[in-house]
Structures are given as C-alpha cells and as structure tokens.
Amino acid sequence: LPFSNDKTHGHIQSFREQLMEAAQKAHLKTPVPGKANGVLVLNQPLLIEAYVGLMSYIGNKNKLGYSLARGNVGF
C-alpha cells in the first residue's frame, strides 16, 4: 500500500480477515446452489478518485452532487 502506515495496514488486514471469516460462515450457513464451494477473495488495488476545483466546490456547497437525498426523493 503506497500511502499506508503500519497502523492503517493493521486495520485493513484485520478487516480483510474478519470479512473473509464472515463470508465463509455465511456460505456454510446458506450455500449458493450451483456455485463454487467456498469464498473467493481477490486482493486488488482500489481506485478512489477525488475531484477538486471550483465546480466541485460549488456543487458541494449547493448539494448538487450525485447520490444525495432531495426531500422525499433520493437518487
């Protein structure tokens, strides 16, 4: 992990182990018919994009962003 420290890496590793254990327990409890016997865990980089600029700032201030609740309607 290029921007992680030991503490962050430890949290991620702990989360990964807990997630794998939970997925395996769920699969044993309720197996999916016709699917593989077990859980496949892929370790791949996660790309997170952040947009910075005037239009992003205006959109955030005016709550015009994606996936925001607007009254009784959310999208």
Automatic annotation (TrEMBL):
Single GO cellular component term: cytoplasm
Annotated InterPro entries: TPRG1-like
Superkingdom of source: Eukaryota
Protein name as annotated: Uncharacterized protein
Organism name: Salmo trutta (Brown trout)
